[in-house]
Specification:
The chain is α+β, with helices and mostly antiparallel strands. Helix content is 24%, strand content 10%. The protein is built from 3 helices and 7 strands, in the order αααβββββββ. The chain has a 5-stranded mixed sheet with strand order 5-3-4-6-7. The chain has a two-stranded antiparallel sheet with strand order 1-2. The radius of gyration is 25 Å and the shape is globular.
């Protein structure tokens, strides 16, 4: 005697399927910000590690040269090797600080084409020597150049702005080293921000992303006023330490001996 037993397989109804999809979407929306924050934190940590390496290279140079500040050498078209070797990039290269160590993970890729501001980067792109002049510290010849995500404080050079007469060539004349920036996240290879005076306050940038800026921008402080790590940038100080600096407090650092500290007012984005 046989009995017919029917097994009914019940699938998801359309309503149940939509509920599951909705739950997955909610979970993804909750996880994405956490993943983004974790990635940003990892990028910032790697960036600070790069800056510490750069600080070690700079400190080694200062030690070997008995505390003499480097000359500012950037463009020597008649002798391209001179700028290539003696610019701050060349100095760091001597101590094997090159290539990836010059690139913040949050801005590791340079623009693949030339912009109005040739060779500049922005908040998410590195600057590049590919479109700069041959004979500069960033471009040796038509096939050899450097890319980077950081810039150098041009005041911190021989005769550049430190000491009682602002013309010293010795690190011993530089006071409060932990507040003097050497390297910062930047869209170009160096900068000398204009100081605050009773008659002049440097203008705020139109944005904190360095997008669609006019060619030949003269406001050098805009080069580091970029929201690359939250609303701040990473920097290496003259004592070799590295830390995050809020954008509004970049003018609270000591850029040169005669410097009026000032808390900047900046745009939202």
């Amino acid at each position: 005697m046989h009995s017919n037993i029917r097994i009914h397989r019940r699938g998801f109804t359309l309503t149940e399927l939509l509920v599951v999809i909705g739950l997955i979407a909610v979970l993804i929306s909750l996880l994405l910000p956490a993943v983004g924050k974790a990635k940003s934190a990892a990028n910032s940590a790697a960036c600070l590690s790069n800056l510490r390496q750069m600080g070690i290279g700079w400190t080694m140079y200062m030690s070997e040269n008995k505390g003499r500040l480097p000359e500012y050498v950037w463009l020597t078209q008649a002798t391209p090797e001179l700028a290539w070797q003696q610019s701050w990039l060349g100095i760091l290269d001597t101590y094997k600080v090159r290539d990836g160590a010059l690139l913040c993970p949050a801005a590791a890729d340079p623009f693949p084409y030339s912009q109005q501001n040739k060779g500049f980067g922005n908040v998410v792109h590195a600057w590049t020597g590919k479109y700069q002049i041959v004979g500069s510290g960033a471009r040796l010849n038509l096939i050899t150049w450097r890319d980077g995500s950081y810039g150098y404080n041009r005041y911190l050079t021989a005769g550049g702005g430190f000491g009682s007469d602002s013309k010293t060539n010795r690190l011993t004349a530089v006071k409060r080293l932990s507040e003097v920036p050497v390297f910062l996240d930047a869209v170009f290879s160096d900068f000398a921000p204009p100081p605050i005076t009773d008659a002049y306050t440097p203008p705020s940038p139109p944005s904190l992303r360095w997008e669609n800026y006019p060619a030949n921008v003269g406001n050098e402080h805009w080069r580091f006023l970029i929201a690359r790590h939250g609303r701040g940038i990473n920097g290496c100080m003259a004592d070799g330490s590295a830390r995050w600096v809020p954008l509004e407090e970049t003018y609270m650092l000591i850029w040169k001996s005669v410097w009026n500290k000032y808390r900047l007012t900046l745009p939202v984005y």
